[in-house]
What we know:
Layout: E1 12-15, H1 23-35, E2 41-44, E3 54-55, H2 57-61, E4 72-76, H3 79-90, E5 96-102, H4 110-116, E6 121-124, H5 127-130, E7 138-139, H6 155-161, E8 168-173, H7 182-195, E9 199-204, H8 211-224, E10 231-234, H9 242-247, E11 251-254, H10 264-270, E12 275-278, H11 283-286, E13 292-295, H12 300-311, H13 314-331, H14 334-350
Parallel strand pairs: 1-2, 1-4, 2-3, 4-5, 5-6, 6-7, 8-9, 8-11, 9-10, 11-12, 12-13
Amino acid sequence: MTTPPDLSRIDVLVPNFKRRLSGVTATIVRLVPLQAKKVALVAVAPDMPAHVPTVSPWKIISMSRKGPSGTRVWHARRNTEMLAGLFLKHVLRKRLKLLFTSASQRAHTGYTKWLINRMDRLIATSQKTARYLDHPADVILHGIDTEQFSPPLDRADLRQSLGLPDAVLVGCYGRIRAQKGTGDFLEAMIPLMEARPDVHALIMGRATGKFVEYEQSLRVRAEAAGLRGRVHFLPEVPVHEIADWYRVLDLFVAPQRWEGFGLTPLEAMACAVPVVATTVGAFPELIAEQVGTLVPPEDSPAMQGAIASFLDDPDGRRAAGVAAREHAVSAFSIERESDAILSIYRQLLAQG
C-alpha cells in the first residue's frame, strides 16, 4: 500500500474532482507524476491511478494553514475546483495562490467569470482560448509523451498483429458523435474509397447514450455504400494501447465540428502520421503546413480534396509523416508543457 503524501511538505495541490475519464483528467494523469519529480506536488482527487501521487479531498480541510514555502498553489481546471480553492482560501484561511487553466473556446457564463476574476493567475491552453478570457493569461499548449507515441519499428508486422490489412489505412479516432465529425469523416471517405480499392477507413471510439443509434446509422451507411470489410468500426482501447493504432495508419483525420483542444492530431503526428484536421479547437496552432492540411468543419468537398492529396501521393505522404514526427518532438513534448507550468508554480510560490 502506498504511503499517503505528507501535506505539510506539499507546495502544489492539483484538484481533480471528476471520477469519470475526461480530457482534463487525462491531462492531470500525464502531468502530475512528471511534475512531482521537480516540485512537492500532489493530485487532490477521490480516485487516481496508482502511479499518481494523490491525497483525498477530505485531507485538504485539515492540512496546515501554511505550506513549506509559506503559501501553496491550488491549480484548478474546473468551476467546482475554483470554488473549492476560494472556500479553502477565504473561509478556512489556507494560504493559497489560486491558478486556473481554461480550455474553453466559448463565452463564459456570469458564474464562471465571477470565479475566474478571483484567481491569482490564468493559463489558457491555446491562443484562441485566451481570447475568451477577460484577463491576461499565459498560453501553454498541451504536450504529449513523444516516447510513448513514436513511429513503428515495422508497420507491416504491427498491422498483421492487430488483424489489419496491408492497405492504405486512414483513421479517425475519438468519441463517436456528430459534434466530433465522425459522420463527416465517413461521408468524405465513401467516394474516395469507391475510387480507390486499396484504401480502408478505421473508425475507433465509443458511442454512449443517444449516440449509439448515431453509430449504428454510420454502420448502415457504410454497408449501403458497399464498403463492408473496408470501413472498420473498432472498439475503444486503453490509453496504453492507443499508440499502436496510430502507428498502423498512413493518414489521420480529425474532422471535429467543435473541439476544446484536441490531442489526437498530436498523437498521430508523434507516430509519424500526417494529419487532415478541421479549423476548430487548437488544431490551427498545432498543425504546420508541412505536416498536414486544415479544412473548414462540415465542408465535405474540402475534406475529400485534402485526403485525396495524401492518398494519391505516397512519397509526399511519407515525407509529411517524417516532418510530423519532428514537429511533435520539437514543439509539443509533455516535458515542454510540464516545465512551462512548473515555472508559473515557482513564480506564485515565490510571492509568498
